[in-house]
Amino acid sequence: MYPSLGQARPRFEGGPRQQRNPRVQQQRFNNNNSAAKRVLKAEKIQRAQEIKEAYIKAKLNLTPEQNEKFMPLYRQYATEIAQTQAQIHQLQLNPQANSADQIQQEEDLDMKLSMIRRRYNQEFLKIMPPEKVLQIHRSEAEFRDEVVQQLKEKRNDSPN
User: Fold this and answer.
1) How far is CA 55 from the centre of its chain?
2) pLDDT given at position 158
3) What is the pLDDT of residue 154?
4) Are 143 and 55 in contact (CB under 8 A)?
5) Which of 125, 128, 134, 156 is the least crowded, having the fewest Cβ atoms under 10 Å away?
6) Helix, strand or coil for residue 97?
7) CA of 35: how far to CAs of 30, 38, 39, 41, 131, in Å?
8) What is the largest CA-CA distance in the chain?
9) Is the four-CA dihedral 93, 115, 52, 137 of positive or negative sign?
10) Could you tell me the sign of the dihedral formed by the alpha carbons of 156, 157, 158, 160, in that order?
11) Amino acid 9: pLDDT
12) Would residue 102 count as lying in a domain?
């Protein structure tokens, strides 16, 4: 039988119940919450990448053989581009004391982006005709524009 409210509760093997520090509890909640936020953000990024890939795939209208070769290569390309763009963004967020060094680093990263595109364009040309390779970059730009437009509409539709 369970003890009534007036009776003492039995102690468990761990000894007396320890008092919980609210500050420690809040930190644990924040840590778990930020981990959950990171997971959600990663899931959103993954979902956005999947939608982008489907959009580009539809625009290119590839044969099954072309698609089988193209998609893994495109994923590598998109990952390298995203990583380099993140480096540029990080550099711009954290200005250095020596501005000349930062200018050089940004130029180097811009050159790296260009080299990645050039290298992958050559690989894409082995899979599909030049018109479709051009369509990759046009489709990416169209997708970006469409996402920006939808975000603007969503922002304008939401109540303040």
Assistant:
1) 17
2) 75
3) 86
4) yes
5) 156
6) coil
7) 8, 5, 6, 10, 43
8) 82
9) positive
10) positive
11) 46
12) yes
